[in-house]
Amino acid sequence: MAQNSFLNNKRVLITHPFLYEINGATNVALELAQYLQSIHAKVRVYTNVFENPVRQYFEESNIQVDIASDKPMYRLNDFDYIWINSQTFPASLLEELSQNKKIANPPRIIFMHMSAHEDCADEMPYIYNFEENLSSLSLFVSEEALQTNKKYFEKLPKYDFYRNPAPIAYSSIEKNPKKLKKILVVSNHPCQEVLDISKLLRQKGVTVKYLGITGDRYTMINEKILSKYDTIISIGKTVQYCLVSGIPIYIYDQFGGPGWLNSNNYLKAREKNFSGRGFQTKTSETIVHELISGYQSAVNYHSNNKLLFQKEYSIDQVILKLFKQSNLQTKKIAPLSNANIAAHRSLLRLVEINFNKWFQIYQSNILRTEIISLQKDYESLQHNYNILVEETLNLKKDNQAMQTIINSRSIQAWLKLNRAIRPNSTPSNHHT
User: Fold this and answer.
1) CATH number of residue 284's parent domain
2) Residue 236 in contact with residue 166, Cβ under 8 Å?
3) Among 290, 214, 209, 305, which residue's Cα sits nearest to residue 256?
4) Which of 65, 94, 102, 404 could pair with 45 in a Cys bridge, judged by C-beta atoms 3.0 to 4.6 Å apart?
């Protein structure tokens, strides 16, 4: 497409702290790389940890991923654009910022902040004044994230919003739901009230499936999975998938939520990145009542606004504008002192070590989950085995009782009398 020509053959580096857990942030990196590659940009990805289950999705898309421990030797002039997720900056590029080197034609550097949650410390500018010196454009997932990050800057760089746009494929979903029959909950941390709706809805003829690390299935969501359901219960990045596809979204998870997205709560929900923050929690009974009573209204709201949502949240409507914005800001990167470089390198190394430790914890948790699942399977098999053993013992007792009856004097006398009366007759189930 002609409108994409300015990114043809452009060299783009995307950095991300880790690529192993299926979550919204991981999807940001994957979908950005996939889209840029689809419009013929030359894409590389840099990360601290690169493992399955996420690794397979990058490999299936033929996206080159470099790992920090391999110490890839990048140079700033190797790239036209560098997209930084979660402050992840390659060590070799850090060396390029030394006071002894002059950087001609530096790349446009875009910093992305994906959370307002204080526990996600890597989403904040943890290297003082670093982003301000380098940023051609700083992006925030929501107004809430912008306000949270502001205090980390002496002077806020040129900024805009990157509201988790959805891949183009979601806009191609043609679904006109009439009745609520199938619900998908997408969450790695489903709250108890959402877990409890399954039994309540089953009584009303509605099935609920759970997609996530503790759910019925743990895989990367895609348009094929989404299109099988009449509505989705989720927060965060999954919301935009629903907005561009026209599938009604019920926003609720660990922080609570507004429930059905509508014109009354849309702006407030968007301000908080559709996280559910800023709204009340609900009981499972209330959630079930709202799901059923408000479904048709939700269908109408999403159908009526689908085209507007696609203009705001489809990735092809967003990316090119942002890259053009970054082109307007030419940064003359001021060299850093050797002491500053050393301090930055030490901090980035500490972050790398911590992400590797978190991966080990993640693996332990996955293993623990698998052990619990296997234990449940074993207990179920043991229970069934015990039932079979008991039934076998009962059959043996019945057989012994039958043999006792057959071997009794009265039965033996009856058999002798029967043979005497009918010498050619042999009982079918008895051998003498």
Assistant:
1) 3.40.50
2) no
3) 290
4) 65
Helices (H) and strands (E) in the chain, counts: 16, 12
Residues 308 and 342 in one domain: no
Judge contact between 276 and 253, C-beta under 8 A: yes
Segment 19-32, tens digit of pLDDT: 999 999 999 999 99
Distance CA 407, CA 411 (A): 7
Q: Between 402 and 186, name the one with better pLDDT.
A: 186
* Residues 32, 100 contacting (CB under 8 angstroms): no
Domain check: are 137 and 104 in the same one? Answer: yes
Q: Are 362 and 21 in contact (CB under 8 A)?
A: yes
- How many independent structural domains does the chain possess? 2
Helix (H, G, I), strand (E, B) or coil at 283: coil
Both structure tokens of 362: 């993640």
137-159 average pLDDT score: 95
Say how far apart CA 298 and CA 286 lie, in whole Å.
Answer: 16
How far apart, in Å, do the first and last CA atoms of the chain sit?
A: 92
* Residue 344 token pair: 């930055």
| Phi, psi at 11, each rounded to 5° | -95, 120
Residues β-bridged to residue 233: 185, 250
- Is 67 in the same domain as 210? no
Residue 388 in any domain: the answer is no
